[in-house]
Amino acid sequence: MADKVTPISGFQEWLPAERIVEQHFLDTLRAVFELHGFASVNTRAVETVDRLAGNGEDADKEIYGVRRLADAGGQAEFGLHFDLTVPFARYVLENAGKLNFPFRRYQIQPAWRGERPQRLRYREFTQADIDIVDVGELPFHYEVELPLAVADAFSRLPVPAFRIHVNNRKIPEGFYRGLGISDVTAVLRIVDKLDKLPAAAVGSMLVEAGLTAAQAEQCLALAQINSVDDGFVERVRVLGVTHPTLDEGLAQLKAVMDAAAEHAPGLLFADLMIARGLDYYTGTVYEIRLLDQPEGTPSVGGGGRYDALASDGKRTYPGVGISIGVSRLLGLLIGEQGLTASRETPVCVLVAVTDEQTRPESMRVAAALRARGIPTLVAPKAAKFGKQIQFADRRGIPFVWFPAAAGVGTPGEGAAGEGAAGEGAAGESSDQVKAASGAQTGDQVKDIRTGEQVPADRATWLPADPTDLHPTLSPKRQ
Amino acid sequence: MADKVTPISGFQEWLPAERIVEQHFLDTLRAVFELHGFASVNTRAVETVDRLAGNGEDADKEIYGVRRLADAGGQAEFGLHFDLTVPFARYVLENAGKLNFPFRRYQIQPAWRGERPQRLRYREFTQADIDIVDVGELPFHYEVELPLAVADAFSRLPVPAFRIHVNNRKIPEGFYRGLGISDVTAVLRIVDKLDKLPAAAVGSMLVEAGLTAAQAEQCLALAQINSVDDGFVERVRVLGVTHPTLDEGLAQLKAVMDAAAEHAPGLLFADLMIARGLDYYTGTVYEIRLLDQPEGTPSVGGGGRYDALASDGKRTYPGVGISIGVSRLLGLLIGEQGLTASRETPVCVLVAVTDEQTRPESMRVAAALRARGIPTLVAPKAAKFGKQIQFADRRGIPFVWFPAAAGVGTPGEGAAGEGAAGEGAAGESSDQVKAASGAQTGDQVKDIRTGEQVPADRATWLPADPTDLHPTLSPKRQ
């Protein structure tokens, strides 16, 4: 298979050090979701085309169909899922009799959309979703709880400054009704354009749609209200509109903001302009936005409360969920900002090989260290020790272990401080290492960053700094 | 989306408790691979059809093509990968300038084949691969090392008795050449039928292919040699055939077996009948077999040494790899043998809610426990305590926490031992729980399996048995 290889646009892959960053993000999301009581679900990559089509707003044309190459002609039976909500809804219906409700699940998997790749928009992308679904009715308090789990996860990750913008659908709905507007969705759809058009233009569209100038003005005024706390309530009240649904929406959003003030201070932002999935959400809606990013940086997650995730005709499954765009977040952090790992390999210790005859002894050292949880590698060749140190240095492996080998001199302190130097220096120092043998006969370990080399017991040794055991994140590209 | 849902044949999905088993397997494989110095690589799900086609023996017709539904007509440009070797080879070529060789990677991902689903053979299946690739040349010792990593991983998992069967291609090749046979591959291909046909039938086929009866007999005799240690060497020598390639093969297989005797006693099995990937492997070959399983149970992994994983025309990348069929293993253990988890949720503690007004206090308890790594859930409703205990019991959650709530009686010892009982009893005991309040005002925690209820401090409490913190594997279906 000798041929040229070029990346496929919209399909992001990471180098090993970058992948360690991705793993750290996925591990942290998983750990926090589990701390908050979500169980893992993993669904197949494909759904029937029938199920996929019609379930995503304008997504039909982006669905990747899947069909055996051998089955030429005809229609694709399957498609790759374009989100994790459609497969989860199907999973809930398929396993309803075996799940305990309310059912809390997290799901971290790739999804695929055949759209034109753009900055931070991929054709294959990893999503991390949490949802709570119940049968028939879902208590409101889950709408309070859900964003706290996301805030908890993000607060443990090296993400840039962010805020979770929150609104409640009942606020514009009740407000519009209080103003005497009947077609709530049509008005929402126009007001939703405020993030792209100036307020005056949106106001004109509202008037064209049949609102009075006063109604239009009120709608725009509502959408422009936001606050870091529950201050939005008073600002809505000042507009003088009353309706029971408005009252309910304000009380619910206030409950979300009050809980956030205690459990995730500063991370939630009441923003009455947030709409999202107009045909879908019925209560609280969320949108995760990064602050201080370049113009056009998309949101890195969102979700909301929906009254019907799925229905089997007899029962309806309402829920609330948030989806985090992991690929988008990592595309920004790794791809654009250079976030990387302290090393490109899990290896903490490289065990040197004195000569090929004593490789079994080096393997014994490695087995002893691994048995105590220390990622360990045996050197590929019985090269000069300087070369072996260089091998570790190139990969960011912090420690090189020199086994005591009968009849073979162990490297002494003479080489300390030189092993981690550049190629030439390492090559030179290897002779010194071999020359400075004999004084000690036990195992020794060298921290190649400092050059410090000390006697060590393979049965008890651990890195002095426990963070050396595994790669850590590093904000700068190396 | 009200409709009937039926599973898709060949696409296995797990229920939450089963998924916990799967996660345990994937976590253990990953942890052990990292201990052995392998770095994680994750590749996109698709490759170009050109790259996939012609790279898998007879796999072409099983490839799933991927094309946007909107792009009707024409040929699929992409296909889903059918293993992790083809994408890894492409990744190595694409990133050769950025990788440090020898490069050790593990890759745990799904793959897809459009074959007819059978027992333990799926259309979507998860593989866990480890490979070591180098540029130009790859030292033999990696062939010794690689199966030890797999043996280490399996020895930490609740897999049934297994053995890694090992052979070396140089043994039959050298042996055949020593017998004067020139078309080695043709003979190998016939001898490989020994696992399906009786020896006499295979012998006849060898004679039909041009071998003398004596040559055929020797070939069959060689293939039937196996040993748990290096005893195979003597048994081959007794056959009286000599050739330098045979010597090399015997020495290499002996080195593999000797290392295994030390690091993985009893887990490797020298088996001179193992062939695998006839056009592909050039040295050691591996096949992981479960013992004492029903007839027809396929191997759960395999691999070997290959001289050209990939080539860019100038450089060739030899390697050695083993692939573990995770879905197959779990299909057997979970699907057929009922391996499951001790509970269906990560939750260790359910925090009871005394009434909806004090839900914020229950959320505070949950936050305090989560901050110390204890997966915690707040009860969905301020139902009678008996109902809340029942909620935990149904999900296997071991502990229920009763927050001290100002003005609300905390449950006393009177209810101990009754909470975990059946529905009726739990309903009754809830009244007793409420009645027995007042004596204590601090938080209390109940182990609902024993009924024991004790005062507890949310800032310091941990389960007495640390294994209660997370679900554990359970051999019996619950």
TrEMBL record, chains A, B:
Q: Where are the transmembrane segments?
A: none
Q: Which residues form the signal peptide?
A: none
Q: Which CDD domains match?
A: HisRS-like_core (cd00773)
Spell out the Gly residues composition-biased ranges.
413-425
Annotated segments matching region Disordered: 413-478
GO terms assigned for molecular function: ATP binding; histidine-tRNA ligase activity
Binding positions for L-histidine? D83, L84, T85, R113, Q127, D131, R276, Y280, Y281
Q: Which UniProt keywords apply?
A: Aminoacyl-tRNA synthetase, ATP-binding, Cytoplasm, Ligase, Nucleotide-binding, Protein biosynthesis
Domain Aminoacyl-transfer RNA synthetases class-II family profile residues, every copy: 29-346
The EC designation for this entry is: 6.1.1.21
User: GO biological process: any one?
Assistant: histidyl-tRNA aminoacylation
Q: What quaternary structure, including any partners, is listed in this protein's UniProt entry? A: Homodimer.
Q: Which family does it belong to?
A: Belongs to the class-II aminoacyl-tRNA synthetase family.
Q: What is this protein called?
A: Histidine--tRNA ligase
Q: Tell me which species this is from.
A: Metallococcus carri
Identify the taxonomic lineage of the organism of origin: Bacteria, Bacillati, Actinomycetota, Actinomycetes, Micrococcales
